[in-house]
Amino acid sequence: MALIKEIRQRTGLAIGVIAGGLILFLLGGDLLSPNSSLLGNNNPVVGEIAGEDVTYQEYVDKVEEFRIAYQQRTGRAPSEVEMFSVREQAWQSMIVDKVFKEEYEKLGLTISPEELVDMVQGKNIVPELRQQLVNPQTGQFDKTQLISFLQSLETADPAQQAFWAQQEQLFADSRLRIKYDNLLGTSEYATSAEGKMEYKAANTIAETSILFVPYYAVPDSAVSVSEAEMQTYLRENKEKFQTGNTANIEYVNFSILPSAADSAEVIEEITQLTEELRNSEQDSVFVNRNSDIRPAFYTFRPGDEFPQDFTRNTDEFVEGVTYGPFVTANSTYISFKVTKKYEGTPRMRASHILFSTEGMDDVAKAGIKSQAEEVLQDLKEGGDFAAAARTYGQDGTAQQGGDLGWFAKEEFVEEFANATYARRSTGLLPNLVETEYGFHIIEVTELPQSEYTSIAVLQKELIASDATRNEAFRNADAFAAESGNRNEFSENAIDQNYRVLQANNVDAGARNLNNLQNAREIIRWAFAEASEGEVSPVFELDNAYIVASLVSKKEEGDAELVDVRDQVEGQVRNDKKAALIKEALAGKSTLEEMKAVYGDDASLNEIPDLKLSSSVIPGIGFAPKAVGAIFGLSEGQLTQPIQEDIGVLVGKLNALTPAAEIADYTAYQSQLAQSGAQRVSYQVMMALEELADVKDYRYKFF
């Protein structure tokens, strides 16, 4: 079972594998790195946090911690794509360690020994352990497994004890961050005046007419943009045009797609194997031996969705019958055999609305019950159950309209299970059901079903054969060998009729190159190894060999005009067009007169219900300055022409309906505070990172 059962059952093997893997990972990764400290690099620094260097070794040690945690959690090693996420988690963890540690100390935040014990074996066991230790029969957390493991630690190998100590430290670090975030979140406060303002912004409505003149109403030929004007604009707005470490890369793609011969071979193979499956008496063994996709044998319970490739091609699920082969959406070939149908544990489906009473006394519970009964009565009179669940539900199902999905009777608390399984028709239960969690309003959506279906799945992938791959590689290798620099790269591509593709402003941390997935090695080569004009060796991706040439690269900082010319020129041109539009509209007293200046290129829009809180004008677009100006008018007045990113607008206020006064603005006050609390954790994280001046050089190594 991942984290704990695997350690308990295979202690010696697990520790040996982990230790060996750790040594190979650290030494092998460092030896193979182009920035290897073992090969003589005197500055193995992957970043800076709060003025301190983060060394390559420190970072890979942290990555290894997260890699092992991932493997223990999932029961398998992460793929290369998943390793990207693992590395990001490790990096963020190092930032948190260095940046937040000082904050914790200032505030006196700690995790006491008693609290840690409660987290790993008490009443408040951390979710990470709860997810690992699940009883396969009930699907629920099994505390006996945890106790058994903890007792075994007393006589365990020192390495195993050290590993568990490391896990406990991770739990403690996570809890400290939760405390810090909760402290900040609960300190977020909105005044009653702010609540009143929020209410008025959401409920003050203007009836308005708006003239919209888009920039294209003025032809580009009507304005000229000089080099000096663009330089001035860039200098005055440099904060808008900051650049990271980026590169411009050209490349030739030598596709590794299956040939017609490859396709014919797979079709012949799947046809033969399907016939063998039809006559097989050991279906699970056969497909697990012959299918390209694992697992290949499934049992579908009531409520489980059958494979789309199966349901799309047949309406029948007859026991003992083989269906296929079919072509899937991914251009693979697949066949199915319905091995067995049988009666199993009944499963049903229901939705509920939970009114929680945990921790309440009898008086408080009575109040909650009264509220639940009112909602139940509304539903009996035709109310929308899903809408009510989203409004009143107090558990994780609320946002799904209360849907619990399909479940077996033993998976739920006794009172709930008895009430739902006693039902003989779908629909709303007439009475509340009380459990240890509170009062439930329940709607049965599917009655119990007990038919289980086992299906063997035989799938063969259509992939390029070795012969096809070898031919593509020979072509790519010959092209790379003949191209000593970028000029030769371009000339050879033209001579040999290869298409040269461009990837501009590629970020140093990017993983994809245009539509090429998992192209990290090409990007790392461009930033860590290549000089401008250099041609790469052959890179192998999933479906292509790539030969690249580095056109240029630039460091992080203020952008040069050459890098952002199109954006700057467009902005300066729009500023000049806006000035011409304003000049043309000057002296006109009505919106109709103004529209006549630009005819069909301009539009006159009637907006009957524009809200003060809006930043978007229906039918026009994002125009916050115009919205604000309109609500500053008296009825019948016009705004001055207002320049927005989308064009020039003039608004007229026809009528204003102020928000009605209400007695209590608490709901809006709470809404503001809650919204602020949800944002504060991220905002503080970004602020502390900025103060710590985090610098990331990992793109040179990974």
UniProtKB/TrEMBL annotation:
<keyword id="KW-1133">Transmembrane helix</keyword>
<keyword id="KW-1003">Cell membrane</keyword>
<dbReference type="InterPro" id="IPR000297">
    <property type="entry name" value="PPIase_PpiC"/>
</dbReference>
<dbReference type="InterPro" id="IPR046357">
    <property type="entry name" value="PPIase_dom_sf"/>
</dbReference>
<keyword id="KW-0812">Transmembrane</keyword>
<dbReference type="Pfam" id="PF13616">
    <property type="entry name" value="Rotamase_3"/>
</dbReference>
<feature type="domain" description="PpiC">
    <location>
        <begin position="345"/>
        <end position="446"/>
    </location>
</feature>
<keyword id="KW-0997">Cell inner membrane</keyword>
<protein>
    <recommendedName>
        <fullName>Periplasmic chaperone PpiD</fullName>
    </recommendedName>
</protein>
<feature type="transmembrane region" description="Helical">
    <location>
        <begin position="12"/>
        <end position="32"/>
    </location>
</feature>
<keyword id="KW-0472">Membrane</keyword>
<keyword id="KW-0697">Rotamase</keyword>
<dbReference type="Pfam" id="PF13623">
    <property type="entry name" value="SurA_N_2"/>
</dbReference>
<keyword id="KW-0413">Isomerase</keyword>
<comment type="similarity">
    <text>Belongs to the PpiD chaperone family.</text>
</comment>
<dbReference type="InterPro" id="IPR027304">
    <property type="entry name" value="Trigger_fact/SurA_dom_sf"/>
</dbReference>
<dbReference type="InterPro" id="IPR052029">
    <property type="entry name" value="PpiD_chaperone"/>
</dbReference>
<keyword id="KW-0143">Chaperone</keyword>
